[in-house]
Amino acid sequence: MKQAAIVANNLCLSFETNTGNIDALSNVSLEIEPGEFVSLIGPSGCGKTTFLRVVAALEAPTSGTVAVNGMSPDEARKARAYGYVFQAAGLYPWRTIAANVRLPLEVMGYRKSEWANRVGRVLELVDLQGFADRFPWQLSGGMQQRASIARALSFDAGILLMDEPFGALDEIVRDRLNEQLLRIWKNTEKTIGFVTHSIPEAVYLSTKIVVMSPRPGRIVDIIESPLPPERPLEIRDSPEFIAIAQRVRKGLREMHIE
Do the Cβ atoms of 21 and 15 come closer than 8 Å? Predict the structure, then answer.
């Protein structure tokens, strides 16, 4: 029996502010299996990003537990168990794309003899093999995000955490990157935790969709997708796709009515 990639049990997190405590997460329990593509969706401030940050050891829970590959988040970080893609590409403008992508390899102490091979492999994976010597300002926003994904993949972690990486892009570019991300997921068999505000994006990409409530963030629905692994964009017009989207939308709407 395979060990779960991510397990959260009764996770709670509160922040202290000048105006009092803010409950960001309330009794969140979730299990993500190896190779799953799991999207978290909900209104702004519902704790989606906070959950991802707890998994990545960037925030400490007030109570409850999180295990990543059977380890604590901090142990998983030290074991290089996951890569993280932020909302903004966060590329250093003075470094070439190749130099940006190899940055984790430098920080983590990988041998220089490995750098070129690893960087070349992930740039090819995100279709940026011809742009290694370019600088970020010479690339479009979508290409910069692909470089950011390549950087997170450079040390070949089994888990990829993605915090709304395509939210600032126009719909045409977003569609293309969604297709490319599915291809990357299929080719690498990574476990992906993905935060989004977009219902179509969540339904198109995911094997499992986690619907979260307004603050304090709770899980109100977990939807196992019946869609096939091969998903052309046209699948968004299928009855199965529309039914899942309606269920997500219904859950989000009902949370605001309560």
Answer: yes
Q: Please provide residue 112's backbone torsions phi and psi, each rounded to the nearest 5 degrees.
A: -60, -30
Which residues face 216 on adjacent strands? none
Whole-model pTM: value is 0.94
Indicate the length of the chain as a whole number. Answer: 258
**101 contacts: CB under 8 Å, gap ≥ 6:** 119, 122, 123, 147, 150, 151, 154
Q: Which residues contact 62 (CB under 8 A, 6 or more apart)?
A: 12, 13, 14
Model confidence pLDDT, tens digit, residues 97-141:
999 999 999 999 999 999 999 999 999 999 999 999 999 999 999
53-103 per-position pLDDT tens digit: 999 999 999 999 999 999 999 999 999 999 999 999 999 999 999 999 999
> From CA 239, how far away is CA 74, in angstroms rounded?
43
